[in-house]
Queue: 4 jobs
Job 1
Amino acid sequence: MRIKNNLVGKKNQKFWQRAGRSFHNNWQLYVLLLPAIGFLFVFNYLPLYGVQIAFRDYKAAFGILGSKWVGFKHFVDFFNAYYFKRLLANTFLLNLYGLIISFPIPIVMAIFLNQIEHKKYKKFIQTTIYVPHFISTVVMAGILYLFLSPSNGIVNTLIVALGGDSLHFMIEPNWFRPLFIISDIWQHAGWNTILYIAALTGIDPGIYEAATIDGATKMQKIRHIDIPHLVPIVVMMLILSCGSLLVSNTDKALLMQTSGNMSKSDIIGVYVYQIGIGKAQFSYTTAIGLFINVINFVMIISVNWISKRLNQTGLF
């Protein structure tokens, strides 16, 4: 036991020695890190102190520590809530369908953009597909209401012109998820290609030249050069995406929500907004948020573990 403790002590001593040398040699870089570390500490770690209100009956007059401790009462209330199953199912399905449909699109777009050799055309296309990302959520929802209006919307005008009947897209429950996902793809798919294009840009041009000499076609280059180089970054992005399967764009869902599509648009984020802000049930909604974050954390750990077992690629 004494020998083991001595070995541990020597390892710790060596670690601190290396850390000290690293700081002495690169202190300027550590100073540059201080603002970022301070930002993370103030906005990401200090607020964790307030998480305890999820286990208290928080009253602003008594403060956090002065409020009564109720344990898991708010969690139990949420699990027994009348709309719990609907909220959970709507949120999970909306994000799952969105992940399945929208996740591959930026990858495909990045691969095709990488094949464009004319620089001016490539820049024009990139600029065109990036622009929708800068449209605000409110404007995006307004565009949907305007284009899908049953009376004078361009979509229904085309449907009627082709002999069909006008559809109430924003009222029909079954149209909520397709509209949410399609508009999200249009708005963000182009912007999400940036990371994949950066990975493709980093490929050694000599590899493409060697493939050309060997007579490889463009599809063969994509299959044997582009895709293998994209796999690590794709896996990491997939892991991160799986960690948000219970987190949706609350602003967009709230703006798209109508009395007709409530059965599909009623997601956890909207519920937390209505109960937490509208009815000032801070402890209850904090408990919901903590529950969601724990589930997302478990999802990230699980998907990362599976990924490392399958292809030795993971976030950590």
Note: The chain has a mean pLDDT of 88.
Job 2
Amino acid sequence: MTDCIFCKIANGEFNTEFIYEDDNVVVFKDINPVAPVHLLAVPKKHIESLNGLNDKELITDLFFAVKQACKKLNIKEFRTVINTGKSVGQEVFHLHIHIISGRPLNWPPG
């Protein structure tokens, strides 16, 4: 998708520092962090939301990328969030996993 900001980031069109990168996924810092650590794990392939993800290998790659980024930054406690749909907070319609850490996080969220 040509106008998708996450596609552009994942394809290297911006000078974004990747915390982790492999053939299918990139992890980078969120530009609007909600905590001291707020990363995004994003597939390089455009997929609008979790509802459109049917590739078991890519599911594994996404969660492996989360683990590797946390390991690299020595993050042992974190929350992962996947918003699927506008009414629950998805703002960029390209599948991504939020990795949030660095402060106490209450439950339930919202």
Note: Residues 5-101 form a domain with the HIT family, subunit A fold (CATH 3.30.428.10).
Job 3
Amino acid sequence: MNIEELQTFVEVADAGGVSPAALRLGVSKSIVSRRLARLETELGVQLLTRSTRGAALTEAGATFREHAARVCAEIELAREAILPAGPLRGRLRVAAPLSLGPTHFATVVAEMARRHPLLNIQTCYSDRFVDLIAEGYDCGIRVGYLTDSNLIGRRAGPIAVQLVASPGYIEAYGSPQRPEELASHQALMQSTEAWQFMDDGKVISVRPQGKFKADNGVALVAAAIAGLGVAYLPDSLTHESLASQALVPIMTRYPPPPAGAYLVRPPGQHPARKIRLLTELLIEYFGTSAHFAVSASALTPEAGPW
């Protein structure tokens, strides 16, 4: 058996089928099927049961999957140990937010590909919460405040956040002056998230209510400009609207805690070199990007992405 067959089997087991595994690996379904067939023939045991709904591990397959995953991880570490400065090879799957991904993070990912032409990079831009482990991603870029999780995160840089509304909304409904006053205003939200504000060094958390929800930050900016309510958004999404005064900052006496952009990865003793280099590139980019400039407040993060 070879490492490609082991990696393919692990991908099929984790993805739950040949088609999603082929997408992860960037190869055709027929190649995946042939690799699985060769592996099962060599082992002399059925590892997966196939159906129209996907593939499920047999009892033998579940046992073998744990060993195969460890072997793949050890080979990757061994390759990096003997070739610490060699060209990056293999695959890098990255999940990034749709709201900022194409306009901000895509530049970083493209530069990563330019610097490492032998690396096969696949990026998914989506504002839904991506389960990196279940969906087979090497790492993800998260924006906002990191919640407690089993992922390991490193901060790439700060992002300033403000509470904003349109002049039309303020004229019609007034502007909240204190966090508790948000209860009488329409909040534009992704879901049912809590909003955090600073008050003399303490963090105040409120759960606003609103009739308009969207899972995309750009859509929330548009709703705020239309006068539908108040929004809690990073400056990287609102800087143009603030410059044109289509939106204005409100409740500035209680600023949100500084947020950040993070590179997160599944737990493991040593991050792969490709993840370390992407993290360093993100930090390099954040040091020069005007759109991610730090606000006047001090910096410390921690709780959910845009």
Note: Confidence is low (pLDDT under 50) at residues 290-305.
Job 4
Amino acid sequence: MTRPHRNSTRREFLTKSAATAGVFSLGACAGPGGGEKRDIPKAPDKSPIPEGTPVRIGLIGTGGMGGGHLGSMMSQIKNKDAHFEVVALADVNSAWLEDKANTARSNQSGVQVDTYADYRDLLARDDVDGVLIAAPEHWHAQMSMDAIAAGKDVYCEKPMTTSIEEAVWMMDTMEANPHMRLQVGTQKMVLEKYKKAKELIAAGEIGHPTLSQTSYCRNTPAGEWNYYKIDERVKPGETLDWEAWCGSRGVRDWDPKLYHRWRRYKDFSTGIIGDLLVHMMTPMMYALDRGWPTRVAAIGGHFIDHDMENHDQVFLNVGMEKDHTMIVAGSTINATGLPVIIRGNRANIFLGSNNCEIRPEHPYAEDIEPRTIQCKEVRDQPTLRLDWINCIRTREQNISQVDLAAKVMVAVDLSTKAMWEGGTWTYDPQTREYARE
């Protein structure tokens, strides 16, 4: 079953956004340190989607991550995990766009799948319920906020943004639009062990959580992200709108390595920190509930992969608002990570397996029972995406939300600044200002 749609033009969409969505500016969304103010869109109302009617999804970005999401969604449709359709795709690369459109068409009998070179034309459609954004990082914030303005619920791939300013903008926008749903693609948020750890900490079972540690480490001898192959079909001016892809970063000389492997370049990605470490930091911050990062130090190095502009090894020290320190290690040249532990003055929580294990500190061995809480196993990314699709239908609240992702982005941005500019950086959640000590 499909719903008819009207192919609205982008001009109509932009006019409707300004006239009826009620765009307005708030002083609260000024960038930290007095940066530029950003408009806060007001999205139209949303209603639950009746059972029997498919949730209609658009996909923005059809590269490696977008293609992976599409393939997984086709499997979920086949397995009837949820009642939804992928009805529209957008990408500035026509070669990839047509490839993925053919995948969507061949796996969805009777569903019309339309393609767009400009994502705003997709957003102008009044029959699309939500969009999954899998474009490069420097487009995440703008595309997400344009989608919210158009009344589309959003699944935004990680990292949510590339800066604190963008994170604050997105947080303020979602606060102004509580009826909208935005899922941030940090899929380990669905793992039950972090929920159990949060419950233990909230109940005071480990005392005060003083120190946590986590990591994301792997070893890629050929150079991390070099496994993205150079597609010779991609030619600026023919199959690719290179200027549109560069977007806010400004047009660069054509470089096929930059286009295909942008995570290796510091102007387009935070590298290990935003692409890998957010997976571990986000559920850890959720479990800890220690407020905002307020003091961050970090170092990064080029020890093996000298050809990569971003660092191949990083180490973060993140001081939290409520008297806690988190240490985080990341590597693409050695796969041995840190044990995942939350340390309290009374007991420790070990999260290295699929379960949640509590072990008392020696002085409290008589007071606290060591035990392992068995947690069910889930396929993290498909589960998180289904949670989003179900929330589009029911209007219930989704799992991985913007306010937590904004806290993570403070740690990501300040760590990145510390690595490239030196020093220890502070953040004041009241004034939203950051500075180097």
Note: Residues 1-28, 30-34 have pLDDT under 50 and may be disordered.
